[in-house]
Amino acid sequence: MLNNGGGRFYWVRNDSTEKVQGIVVIFAWVSIHESHLKNYVNLYSSLGWDSLVCLADFLNPIFPEKATSLAFVVLSELVEVLRVRPCPLVLATFSGGSKACMYKVLQIIEGACEAQLNLDDSELVRNCISGHIYDSSPVDFTSDLVARFMLHPTILRLPGSTKLVSLAAKGVTSCLDALFLTRFGSQRTEYWQTLYSSVSLGAPYLILCSENDDCAPYPIIYNFAQSLQDLGGSVRLVKWNGSPHVGHYKHYPIQYRAAVIWLLEQALSVHSQKIQHLREKTAMEEHDEISELICNLQKAAVNSNESFTRVARGPNDHFFLPSSADCNNGGETGSLQNEQKERLVHLPNHPSISAHSVLGQVLFDACVPKNVEGWDIKFSGSLNGQPFASARKHSPLNAIKCIRRSRL
Question: Which InterPro entries match (predicted)?
């Protein structure tokens, strides 16, 4: 058993050799004795579920900071287990346990509380919550809540209870009215809004109540169930006539057990659907990433093709790629020309520089004559016994030199 500033909690493991179905988190307050809780723990254990029992302190409904402290350590304990093996979670609230701890659990996983888990842990718990059980709960939180529970028969039957309890209860109520009147109003609104917001978890509700319950009146329970249905929740309301507060299982064990079995089966189904939905969501995200990668590759290929086609802008800017057909005989000239046309590659038409322009004079550092014909150029020396000019006419390099001169 682990203690905390707002209460204590402990595990009750299922001893059967069969696979554990899930975890029932029990939120209880002083209105239910710990020995009474063993009946519910044994019920869940017989159905294959482990139990995490949270016993909130007496003052938790009055001081939300204490409820937050207990809720945070309980969630931390659950996260350690769910990281190893995610499984269905069922939140079972008895009497004032919804205000003493449970509603703070909902706020923490929704990120609406000063104490926060990291996003991954909160999402893990949210995905595992698959059912809600309200037994004689939720209790409407007002300034006389403490007095009503102090005067309740289950409290008066405790050893040492006397008429002084009644006087003490009235004194506590007067003090609470004087000191926390405004605070109680805001806490009450926040409390009910949090319970209604749990519909977003997509888990079914089992609400067990009685018309003979003076601490959790049936009209309040009925309105709560109706509001959950209006918000889209799946709600099953079971009402008895003769059972007292937190005494439904004792007076109607068969019907109570059947209702709990229905809720636990629904929880298993909801958890399975959540897991399937998460797998589909993960597959869709992976598909979107692959599609985005393929799209980026296609865009890169298109940009590359556009860059290559920019080479052929002018019809006169082209060259021929070498072909093996260049080694064929003259009889294949027609096919060679066709092949050359097919292998035509255009080059960009770059601007040319005239040697007679101002830029040309600067680059060549001289004014190039426009007409070189009529120049009287004489060469001395001979080549193979012939004058150089004469030998030049018969030289095989004559054509190449003429090309060089024309380029000049």
Answer: AB_hydrolase_fold, DUF829_TMEM53
Contact 18, 53 (CB under 8 A): no
The pTM score is 0.66
Topology given in CATH for the domain delimited by 2-143+180-285: Rossmann fold (3.40.50)
Q: Is the peptide bond before 138 cis (omega within 30 degrees of 0)?
A: yes
The two tokens of residue 118 are 């990291």
For 336-353, write each residue's pLDDT tens digit. Answer: 455 444 444 444 555 555
pLDDT, one tens digit per residue, over 63-110 is 899 999 999 999 999 999 999 999 999 999 999 999 999 999 999 999
Residue 395 clears pLDDT 70, i.e. is over it: no
Question: Cβ of 273: how many Cβ atoms within 10 Å?
Answer: 12
Question: Per residue in 362-386, pLDDT tens?
Answer: 555 545 555 555 554 444 444 444 5
In tens, the pLDDT along 278-294 reads 888 776 666 566 766 77
